[in-house]
Structure formats: structure tokens, C-alpha cells
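Hi,

Apologies if this is the wrong queue. I'm a grad student, and the batch job for Nicotinate phosphoribosyltransferase from Bifidobacterium tsurumiense produced an output file that my downstream script rejects. I'm not sure whether the problem is my script or the file. Here is the sequence I used:
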Amino acid sequence: MVTYTPALMTDMYEYTMLDATLQDGTAQRNCVFEIYTRHLPQGRRYGVVAGTGRILEALEQFHLSDEELRFLSDRHIVSKETIAWLENFSFKGSIRGYREGEMFFPNSPILQVEGSFGECTLLETLLLSILNYDSAVASAAARMVSAAKNRPCMDMGGRRTNEWAAVAASRAAVIGGFKGTANLLAAQLYDLPAIGTAAHSFTLVHDNETDAFHSQIKALGKGTTLLVDTYNVEEAVRTAVEVAGPELGGVRIDSGDLAAMAQRVRNQLDALGATNTTITVTNDLDEYALAALQTAPVDSYGVGTMLVTGSGAPTCAMVYKLTERENGDGVLQPVAKKSKDKASVPGRKLAYRSFEYNLADTEHVVSGSEEKLAAFDAPEDWKNLLVDYVDHGTIDSSYQGHDAIMNAQKHCATSLAQLPITAQSLMRGDPAIPTEITVL
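Support response: The file is valid. Your script probably expects a header line. Output copied below for reference.
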């Protein structure tokens, strides 16, 4: 595996800002940064938070080696004084935010980072790159799972994106509701179910389809899934049942009119006595294609390109903004941008969701100073959306690993079910619920 440090997965200006503020004394000012998105991808009704567990993994490794420090020094990116400051750097601040699998909307305070300006600014690019991509994939996955109507979806997108993005996408897809991945590194790292049997090349390398099917069944057993569209689907299905018998596990179709083909294959399998043989379809599927296949006799789906590219929305347009900082007198005060169309809401945030008749009706974002927020008394029936991930440098490991991913998957399904039914519509529309911002 290629080795790298998360501490260099950043933009250069994070380090030049650190260098300048260390020289002028503002690097030590306590600050609160916030990650949020100003808008959802056009027409989307909700987003799904994913990537926070990977952020915690990255924080554990966020240290600069001697070689990396030499790189910063040799390139004259930072001064000698900053090199000395970085030698023993580790994040000592606190992070809180939305759970993985939680729905988010415009202006939701997805992640809040508190610490010195110096340490918080170093995290900006890393946090955004993880959350923007992982949340885009999880959001697309959730839409696909809704469209699939309880038929399992599997991640087959590894070959359609960067090799490291493929691993992240597998994890995010499972948070969004996918049931397995073809990516073995993701399966190993996160203990995810791995899926896969054979490609068209496997059939083509044999002298005929019969030999290919005999070989696969000998190696993997009768419960395997045979790819039946290399030559002629009808002949392949007949050969598959002849070779494996009615105990054949499944067949996969990867081309053509998938709905019509699945119907013909289902009827043929049943006529041949293979009534329990399942049908999997692949071939550039997205949520719209899955919705169109709802009436077809398909048992599962393999999704690739559109999953790992966020189904047309490969980023969530999240930003990282300073919302509170310590002034020259040592007093924390809310701050905000006033730029046209990019104004931010000052102050640290609380976040809640209110419900009516067991359905979410509003996202409530409450902003203010630490003292005012501590005194804020939220209605008892509001759901608190924030959890603590890091407390003064101590990482809560319960949000990492396989169990955390599966808990996030369950949370995603529950949270989506709590939104109005319009949230699951594939038609373009406004966010499923409005966001109400209150500044104390």
C-alpha cells in the first residue's frame, strides 16, 4: 500500500496561514470553524452525512515525519519556527457534528471544529475532501436504495474512479444502504461483505460457454452467479441450468433492455425448473434506471459509475468557515462573512429537528455565543442532531470501524423514513424540510 500522511493532503495556504499567524501571535487564538453547505445539489431533497469515521482515522495519523518537515522547509513553504511548532503536532481540539447516516439540508452545521486557529486551519482541506465526496456517494446510494424498493444494491464502482476514492465510496455506499462491495480493500478495512464472480473475459478465454460455466461452478459451487450475456442470453441460460442444475444460485445480465431481458430470463429459468435462481442486473445503473426496473423480476443490482460519481453530484459543495474567534482581549466573539451570496451565520451552533405526527417538519439551527447556547432551552420533542466526536484531542472510537458503519446504515434508513414521503421522490424539488435559523 502507498504510504502517505493526511497532514499533507491539504492546500498549501493552510500552512502559509499557519506560518503567518504563528509570527503575529493569532495562531493561538481559540476558534470555532463550521462545515455546512449553502445548498443541496440541484433538485435534491436531502443529503446524507458520511465520512466522519474516516476523518477520525485520519486525525489519528495527522503527524508530520522528518521527511515531510524537510519538504516544507526545502520548499520554503513555512519558516523554521513553524517547522519547530509542527514537529510534535497533534490535534488537541474538539469536534462535534451530525452522525454518519444523518440527513442534512442547507445550512445544517454538519461538523464544528474548535481549537486554536493554527490547528484548526490545518484540517480544512482534509475535512472538506472527505465529507464532500463521501456524503455525495452516500446521498446517491440512499436515493438508489429507495428506488430499488428493498432489492439489495451492490457497489461495483471501483474501476470508475480513483483507486483511493473507490475505497471511500464503498464505505459511503454501505452507509447509504448498499449491502456489499466488489472492492476487496474496502471489504478488508471495514469488514464489509465482498461480492464478485466472473467477467466476460472469463467466458471468452474458454473454448465455449459450457466449459466456462463448468469451470466457475467447479471453483465456486452451484450457488455462484453466472454471467449470461456474453453471446446469446437464451442459450446461455439453458446451458447454465444444464451445467449447474436447478440449484444454480444466480445469473447476471449486463446489457440490453434489462427489464425485458429479466422478464424473459425469469420465465425461462422457471420453465427449466430453476425457480430459486436469482437475477442480478448491472450496466450503468442509476436511481432512475432502478426506479424503471421496479416491476421487472430482478433480485439485486450492481451499481458502478453513477454511484462513485454521486449520480451527477460528485460533491456536496460544503465549505469550512470561521464562525467564532478569540479577540485581542481574549474574549470569544461570533464572526461572519458578509460577502454577496456567500454570507455566513455567526457563532457556534446547536441543531435540532422537530416533528409533527411523527414526521420531521423543520431543521432548527440555533446560533450564538457559548454562554447563550448553554442557556438555550430546546423544546422536549426536538431531536438533538449533534454528537461529540473529539473532546480536547481524545477521539471517541465508537464512531470508527465496522459496527459504526452498520449503525450509520441503520440510522440513515431511520432518518430517511422520518422525512415526508416527498423526500424519496426522484423528481427535482425543494429540500424535504425547511431550515430555520435563529441567532440568539
